[in-house]
Amino acid sequence: APAETSSAVFADFAPALGEAFARARAGGRELYGFANHELVSTYVGTSTGLRLRHDQPTGTLELNAKSPDRARSAWTGRSTRDFKDVDPGALDAELAVRLGWAERRVELPAGRYETLLPPTAVADLLIYQLWSASGRDAAEGRTVFSKPGGGTRIGERLAELPLTLRSDPNEPGLECPPFVIAHSSGGDESVFDNGLPAHATEWISRGVLKHLTTTRHSAALTGLPVAPALGNLILDGGGDRSLEQMVADTERGLLLTCLWYIREVDPATLLLTGLTRDGVYLVENGEVTGQVNNFRFNESPVDLLGRATEAGRTEKTLPREWSDWFTRAAMPALRIPDFNMSSVSPGV
Questions:
Q1: pLDDT tens digits, 59-111
Q2: How far is Cα 95 from Cα 75, in angstroms, rounded to an integer?
């Protein structure tokens, strides 16, 4: 029988969430959000005798705090397997601090700013990069991972920092299916690979591009090793500093909350555009001094990896833009010296 979930998964979380609502109300904050848990059993069988099963729990929490006049807004989210590692009180306290930062408003023009990208924003950018890392498309000259004149950029250094981007079905807390589950065939997956073992894979190893996603068919066409996409993504940068410590070491820059409405502009460079949301904060002399207006950005995650000057401590995070499709990620905050805020956005 398939595995099942129930409201019992919220047994400890729900009372704690109620307490967080009460504290927020007493503190003049309004809390909004969404908590979801599902447990999916997948069976793979073939006429040749293959019999596989995987039970995948997926939980998400998104929590948004607003001032009573709705002029200030802050967001946070968590990915979890069972809600035992989610503390609503701590999240509400974090949101209260951010709403406090937003009491002072500063208007800034578009431009390039030193920017601290929190783990959730890094995850959203690199998930899109993973989705764009088809080995076949690269070999055919159609992506940012294509080598001029033919072939792929595998073996090329993409980052000066020792950044390692990897997936591992056995990553603690981020476990995902250890074999291929393909519901359709495309450039980077094939129903004929269903049941193929999925192993730990380094997509980028200490700054060097090591693998692109392939099916058995596209691997044979390109001469690349078989490397199916997996259901989690981890970036390790060797850093151990928290985002708060990175803020304290910033003379002047921006601290983002999250990104949304991310869309592709140019596949040849993987140029993406999107918007900031729910809080962009000005950092001066190691302290957050106010909230600034939102921006539209134009950046390539591949370029960002090459320009990053610091990576913080890797921690589990919930991608905001892609949380409907991809929730299992662990990322560090990244310091980008010249993040391109291409225009001012009027959104909250």
A1: 999 999 999 999 999 999 999 999 999 999 999 999 999 999 999 999 999 99
A2: 7
pLDDT digits (tens, 9 = 90+) for 36-55: 999 999 999 988 899 999 99
Q: Contact at 8 Å (CB) between 11 and 28?
A: no
CA atoms of 234 and 127, how far apart (whole Å):
10
pLDDT digits (tens, 9 = 90+) for 311-347: 999 999 999 999 999 999 999 999 999 999 999 998 6
pLDDT tier, 187 (very low <50, low <70, confident <90, very high otherwise): confident
- Which residues neighbour 123 within 8 Å (Cβ) at sequence distance 6 or greater? 233, 317, 318, 319, 322, 329, 331
Q: What is the CA radius of gyration of the chain?
A: 21
Return the number of other C-beta atoms located less than 10 Å from residue 12's C-beta. 13
Q: What is the pTM of this model?
A: 0.96
Residue length, the chain? Answer: 348
Other C-beta atoms within 10 Å of 93: how many? 14
